[in-house]
Amino acid sequence: MSHAAQLTPTALDEFWNLATAPWRLALESRASWEFGALLATQPLLTMAPHGDGHPVLVLPRLLGCDFSTQPLRSFLSQMGYEAHPWELGVNMGPRAGVMSACLRRLDTLEKRYGRKVSLIGWSLGGLYARELAKLAPDQVRQVITLGSPFAGHPSPTEIWNAYEDLTGDHIGLPKNSGPLETPPPVPTTSIYSRTDGIVPWNSSQTHQGPAAENIEVESSHLGLAVNPTVLYAVADRLAQSEGDWKPFERSGLRELFYPDPTR
């Protein structure tokens, strides 16, 4: 038996991630092309499912800010949503007070509109979104993450706990909600790319269930918030009626743009 045949699927994934890391990182240059593709496909994107006006809170990636999520929020506004930034400046990573501030922002929006809020988190922002939904599930309509590293080895839970031990800063994660990789108790969608040059794709796969799904796209990590296929999928997910969530449908032409995440 060859050495490759003895590798477990997890070991194969880790080997693939390591072997392709330089190539995937180089492909992050696609982000500028993806932004150009967003501008070019605006007429087509207007054909995506439109919204019902409910509020959406968008949380940026590590070292990102509200400016970095502006294209996504502008698109959501055009599609009929009340899209809002997180208003916490640059996302400098897990630190004391972040989760409390996000909770206050969520509470403000939910009370302002009298409706549950959908959360969209890009990369690290997706971890915040998932944990917010665990802390305040009655205020969250659904969670959509874009290339968020909530699974893997070591687990994000172990990394964040180590951060708290080293710095003494309490990040504010719920202590009784289980590991970060556990989906929140609301409909949850993880959108990821196997050619993501920053976050390994298998770190972004959620445990699929009746209200949790994965959607695979072809995108760079830095382009996830502007890639047209991502924006279409986000619009499709947000347009579902509250309380009537169904998994993403890949049939027909969609199969050309959205690979089977279980392959």
UniProtKB/TrEMBL annotation:
<dbReference type="InterPro" id="IPR000073">
    <property type="entry name" value="AB_hydrolase_1"/>
</dbReference>
<feature type="domain" description="AB hydrolase-1">
    <location>
        <begin position="62"/>
        <end position="157"/>
    </location>
</feature>
<protein>
    <recommendedName>
        <fullName>AB hydrolase-1 domain-containing protein</fullName>
    </recommendedName>
</protein>
<dbReference type="Pfam" id="PF00561">
    <property type="entry name" value="Abhydrolase_1"/>
</dbReference>
<dbReference type="InterPro" id="IPR029058">
    <property type="entry name" value="AB_hydrolase_fold"/>
</dbReference>
